Amino acid sequence: MKPADTAHPDFHRRYLFAHGRDELLINTAINAGIAWFMVRGIAVVPWWGKISFGVDTLVTGMLLGVVVTQIVTWRMHRRLRRGDLVPMDNWPRGAAAWAHRLPIALAARTVTLGLCGLGWALLALLVLRIAGVHAMSPSTFIVYKALFAGWVAGFITAVGGFRALGDGIAPEPPQARAWSDDERQVPS
User: Fold this and answer.
1) pLDDT tens per residue across span 5-51
2) Start-to-end CA span in the chain (Å)
3) 141-164 pLDDT, tens digit each
4) How, if at all, do strands 135-136 and 45-46 pair?
5) How far is residue 131's CA from residue 117's CA, in Å, rounded to a whole number?
6) What DSSP line would sit under the chain, residue for residue?
7) Fewer beta carbons below 10 Å: N end or C end of the chain?
8) Tens of pLDDT along 79-137?
9) Burial code of 110-141, b = ≥16 C-beta within 10 A, e = fewer?
10) Maximum separation of any 2 CA atoms in the chain, in Å
């Protein structure tokens, strides 16, 4: 892939969509396993309590926002330094255009997207309340937690990734990249 191919906003969108999809699938699987481990031997998962879907939703939303922001920023910066991607100078129009308004400082961006994950959690709990959900069976909770976590991770990956591509990270000179993990030569 030539650098010119990676400079187009459509490429950035497709690239981040693919990473968002991957994060969605990975976090869906991980959180299904976490949920199964949490509710083994429990007959009903209540709204609030030590093991509950209300507390778990709030914690999952906030933690995923924080952790995924750190991971996606690191990955995008690494790809930019290696020259695999070209920084995004022209922000696309539409839904992704507001990502450039996120803070440039990683700590502030992490807090902002952590709060965004918390916002998705509050919205999910509001929908459950309006739907009249009073408790969940363990299997329903596993599916709910997996899908919720997958959605939040995919969303945060796309939004945080767009911001990271616009952070002004320049490619490293070829001699500085010679010792990266992917290009390290082992003597035979």
Assistant:
1) 555 556 666 666 676 677 788 888 998 999 899 898 899 998 898 88
2) 30
3) 999 999 999 889 888 888 888 888
4) antiparallel
5) 21
6) --GGGGSSHHHHHHHHHHHHHHHHHHHHHHHHHHHHHHHTT-S-EESSSSS-HHHHHHHHHHHHHHHHHHHHHHHHHHHHHHTSS----SPPSSGGGGGGGS-SSHHHHHHHHHHHHHHHHHHHHHHHHHTT--EE-HHHHHHHHHHHHHHHHHHHHHHHHHHHHTS-PPPPPHHHHTTSTTTPPPP-
7) C
8) 888 877 777 765 555 655 667 778 888 899 999 999 999 999 999 999 999 999 999 99
9) bebbbebbbebbeebbeebeeeeeeebebeeb
10) 66
Of the CA atoms within 13 Å of residue 148, those in its CB half-sphere come to 31
Residues making up the chain, counted from first to last = 188
Residue 107 is which amino acid?
A: A
> What residue has token string 């952790």?
67
Mapped to the 3 state alphabet, what secondary structure does 34-53 carry?
A: HHHHHHCCCCCEECCCCCCH
